[in-house]
Amino acid sequence: MMNGSEGKERSKSVYREFIGGDKTLWMIIVILCIFSILVVYSSTASMAYKKLDGDTSHFLIRQVRFILLGLATIYLFHLINYRRYFDKARRNFRFSIVLLLLTFVVGVTYNGATRWLGIPGTGFTFQPSELVKITLIINTAAFLASKQKIMATMPILPSFRKSDWRRDPDRNYRILHEITLPLLMPMALACLLVMVSNLSTAVIMAATCLIILVIGRVRWSEIRRLIGAAAVVFAAVVIMLKIFDVGRVDTWISRVEHFVTDENKEGEISDEQFQAYQAKMAVASGWLMGRGPGNSTQRSNLPHPYSDYAYAFIIEEYGLLGALFVLGCYLWIFYRSIVIFRKCDTAFPALLVLGLSLTITLQALLHMLVSVDATPVTGQTLPLISLGGSSLLFTCMSLGIILGVSRRQNAIEYERMIAEKRRLNIEEWQHVMLEEYDGEKRGKKSRKKEEVDELDTMKRIAYQGVVWYNPEDEDDTKEQWNYGDYYDNDEKEEDYS
User: Fold this and answer.
1) Rounded to 5 degrees, what angle do the CA atoms 87, 88, 91 make?
2) Nearest by Cα to 255 from 373, 387, 365
């Protein structure tokens, strides 16, 4: 008959073997997925009824399929050892850049933006920028982890002065080839290519990489130089895009203008202003408790209540309390990621977890700010909640990687705990042996010198942590095991696992 403690330990063992990772993070993911089903069904039921001949569950079924596929993605990625990402960081980043370049040639345009790439024969489209966002973080974390010994002392940018180049050109060339090109060029390339069609995603990527650099021991003086150089490059690129009429510069400018003004030059309300106005109506009607699930009055007027303005829709139906709960879930994801970050023994998994969690959190916060009309319209979806396929799947991929790091760290901690228990048991055996030795020596002072020497040998063995098996075993040999040596080797191996 299994008692309660044994059953609990067995369930923990099953969890470690088949699932693993941070349990709280798993719970938050499931909660947000449930919220997604409620929001998508309530916001799309009437639209589906009108467009699909009364089939109100069309978008619901589609979202459930994506959620199930997303959960499967999380599970598969959380089984992968994070060191594989380290080994293939540069290769995966180059592959994602190639896919991103293909969008400029054969990309699918939707709502005036060419961000999607179709998979032939499947009818499925995805955003390569979402994949670039993940691979860029992995590549940045891998490089910083490999250069931890010098990052706190070596500049990441060469000197901007001609006199410094004349005085010490070798040093500047070394900085350029060893740090600037392998570290900053991937950031610049990814952000500039994504910026052409999706400025908000590029800003999230740049902000995340900047924070990773700070955590990765880059000096603040270098961070300030980098920000200044990035601002100059950004301004130059915007001017060039405007001159050659490439990208969505006019859209960016109009959204900023419409954000700070109530009307356009012709005195008419623009699409962006209409969206913001309807979002504010939805937020205002929600108040504290909301109208209740399925009772929204703005679902027909609010543009994209299932994606771009999902948070405004949540406020209307679930009120301020529901909105704060959703906000708390995303902040909780970031907090649990920090907990995992602090458990990491090496730089790469720590920076990887921090970067991926930041992208999810910043995207969610930016979506919320747009929904309450605190920033210009961006088109960012609400992670795990908004209707969509590629955004949800790549978010699940990021969460799977985070849970994979957590799973590995938990396994290391469990192995260390077992080793420590083994060590404590041996130390307890030593203590008992020494007590028996002292008792034997006090009780038999008349022993012969040979017997006393034998007891001294036992004492010495106990202090050294060597366990001698019974010489009367079947093989009639003396074997030994030094727990100290074993423990040290085991711990050293785990540091690199």
Assistant:
1) 145
2) 373
CA–chain centroid gap for 447, Å, is: 69
Residue 264 clears pLDDT 60, i.e. is over it = no
Q: Exposure of 270 by Cβ count < 10 A (0-12 exposed, 13-18 middle, 19+ buried)?
A: middle
Q: How far apart are CA 279 and CA 315, in angstroms?
A: 10
pLDDT digits (tens, 9 = 90+) for 151-176: 888 889 998 888 888 888 898 899 99
The residues that bridge with 118 in the sheet, in sequence order, are: 125
Residue 388 near residue 381 (C-beta atoms within 8 A): yes
In contact, 291 and 353? CB cutoff 8 Å? no
SS3 assignment, position 270: coil
Least confident of 124-128, 245-249, 289-293, 453-457: 453-457
HSE-CB of 81 using CA atoms within 13 angstroms: 8
Contact (CB, 8 A) for 180 and 157: yes
Distance CA 396, CA 394 (A): 5
* pLDDT band, residue 144 (cuts 50/70/90): very high
pLDDT digits 0-9 by tens, 237-258: 989 888 888 777 888 888 887 7
Residues with Cβ within 8 Å of 293's Cβ and at least 6 positions away in sequence, in order, are 38, 42, 317, 318
**Inter-residue contact 159 to 167 (CB < 8 Å):** no
For residue 289, the one-letter residue type is M
Cα–Cα separations (whole angstroms), residue 195 to 105, 129, 143, 224: 16, 10, 23, 22
All structural domains of the chain with their residue ranges: 85-395, 435-495
What percent of the chain shows pLDDT beyond 90?
43
What dihedral do alpha carbons 402, 406, 411, 417 form, nearest 10°?
160
